[in-house]
Design a protein that fits this description.
The chain is of the alpha+beta class and 356 residues long. The chain is built from four helices and 16 strands. Helix content is 22%, strand content 47%.
Length: 356
């Protein structure tokens, strides 16, 4: 009888925990929704914040809100870095029409003593524009630029991964300059009790960009996503609500048909279909994506490279060990033939081998 009551208590406690987690996520979502739904006038500034920088994320149409343990998901959910156990660096380059260039550099790692995960991010967007006088005559070209510097922190608070990111946005339009601060907040819920992972994030909540007396709001958005992983396939679905009140749905699929090769495809209501692929090695991952622009006759190609620094160090250390093992017999053979080789030559050969 006691055993039955004990088992019932365990089941009841698990049920209460599940309900508690659902309530917490629901309250967080309601608060985020209320913040995102505020009535703001004017246009949204810092449009760089809406562009997908990573080729890996673009390959699944940006449906990465619930994709965890991935540095490429940092843009859409800062809690995604919580599961990264090795120091990783990722660089992405995108070329748009009209000589618009977009570069992105990310680095993420894990603090010692299980204190959480960290990440830094830099983005740089440049565009060409034409300066005109009051009559509309061309007075020459100039370059606009957007710059972003961000730092993120994430940690597992069982059973939820939580993250926060602080961003500084700098915008230069001809001779006018403006800066703003913004924060992102993200949550990931992953448990064996559910067949899929849930992601929730609020992006670009911050101050306005002021060019003179004109203030422009940042593109605030709330994102909710789910991700279901199978043995060789991963499916993702995102819903984003923007400050203007519009809803955008994204869906993506990732599969691994052969070893070291990943294929991706996705669809976004805003940008249409997208495809991508990755080649995966021990410490290096190369990503590519192709995204035809839905309302323009231009295509966007993105390239990304991802390096796992810890694996590179281990690989280099293993190579040095192999070289030292090969150098040992060479030293013995030279010592047995001292008539043809001098002592100084032997030491020099060993030093060269070890330095390589």
């Amino acid at each position: 009888m006691k055993k039955i009551l004990y088992d019932e208590r365990i089941v009841f406690d698990k049920f209460n925990m599940r309900v508690k987690n659902i309530i917490i996520l629901s309250l967080i979502g309601v608060c985020m929704y209320a913040s995102c739904g505020c009535d703001d006038t004017g246009t949204s500034a810092g449009l760089m914040l809406r562009l997908v920088s990573s080729a890996k994320s673009a390959g699944i149409a940006g449906a990465t809100t619930a994709v965890g343990s991935d540095i490429n998901s940092l843009d859409f959910n800062c809690a995604a870095i919580s599961g990264i156990n090795e120091t990783t660096v990722a660089f992405s380059h995108t070329t748009y029409m009209f000589d618009i260039f977009y570069n992105d550099l990310k680095c993420a790692g894990k603090f010692q003593n299980s204190f959480g995960n960290w990440a830094v991010n830099m983005k740089y967007l440049t565009t060409n524009d034409t300066r005109r006088d009051a009559c509309g005559l061309n007075e020459g070209e100039f370059r606009n630029s957007d710059f972003l510097l961000a730092a993120a922190y994430a940690r597992e608070i069982h059973p939820i991964d939580a993250g926060i990111q602080l961003k500084y946005i700098y915008e230069k339009l001809d001779d006018s300059k403006a800066g703003a601060l913004a924060i992102d907040a993200g949550f990931l819920y992953s448990t064996y009790r559910l067949p899929f992972d849930i992601g929730l994030s609020l992006r670009n909540f911050g101050t306005d960009l002021y060019h003179g007396d004109l203030g422009e709001t940042l593109p605030l958005e709330l994102r909710v996503g789910i991700n279901r992983k199978f043995e060789y396939v991963s499916l993702s679905l995102d819903c984003a609500r923007y400050r203007e009140g519009s809803f955008i749905y994204n869906a993506g699929m990732e599969s691994c048909p052969v070893k070291n090769f990943v294929f991706r495809s996705g669809y976004s209501e805003m940008n249409g279909f997208a495809v991508g692929a990755s080649f995966i090695a021990t410490a290096v991952r190369c990503h590519y994506s192709f995204s035809p622009m839905k309302y323009l006759s231009e295509n966007v190609h993105r390239f990304s490279i991802e390096l796992t620094i810890d694996r590179l160090k281990n690989k280099k250390h293993s190579s040095r060990k192999m070289l030292k093992k090969k150098a040992a017999p060479a030293r013995n053979s030279n010592l047995n033939n001292q008539k043809s080789y001098g002592r100084d030559d032997i030491d020099d050969d060993i030093i060269v081998i070890e330095s390589e």
